[in-house]
Amino acid sequence: MSVQHTETAGDGPLIPRPDRTPDALRAACAVVAPQLLPAYDQAKDRALAEAVEHGSLGPVHACLQHWSALIEIERHPRTAKAYHRAEYLAQLATSPAEARDHLAAAAAIYRDAARAVRGE
Asked: Which residues does the annotated region (Disordered) include (predicted)?
């Protein structure tokens, strides 16, 4: 997946952190990563269907947490660039160890974003 951001001074956020609601996350996604809107809509629809099927809001909460972390990454151009670069390099890796290193870098960025949106 390729994402391009307009570089800003430093790595300040492009937009304020959105609320963790479906509409707020979708609106933020439309600004910082519009190419991800179809994936967001599919994930939200799948989470709602699973919630109905299982009689639990767990899938909806998990979806919103995941997309909150992704939007947190995309709000920061340098962070997004590093995240997508690590994912890309993992795909090009010539050994499992090299792929693992790049995926570990992407996972660390994702974990940091998830902690940020949880207020940790």
From this structure: 1-21
Query: Coil, strand or helix: which one is 83?
Result: helix
Q: Looking at the domain assignment, is residue 13 inside a domain?
A: no
Instruction: Give the DSSP letter of residue 109.
Output: H
Reported residue count of the chain is: 120
pLDDT, tens digit (0-9, with 9 covering 90-100), for 28-76: 999 999 999 999 999 999 999 999 999 999 999 999 999 999 999 999 9
Query: Would residue 17 count as lying in a domain?
Result: no
pTM for this entry:
0.86
* CA–CA separation, 27 and 52 (whole Å): 24
What confidence tens digit (pLDDT) does each residue in 23-37 have? 999 999 999 999 999
Domain count, the chain: 1
What is the spatial distance between Cα 97 and Cα 72, in angstroms, rounded to a whole number?
28
* Domain-embedded: residue 12: no
Q: Would you tell me how many other CB atoms lie within 10 Å of the CB of residue 80? A: 23
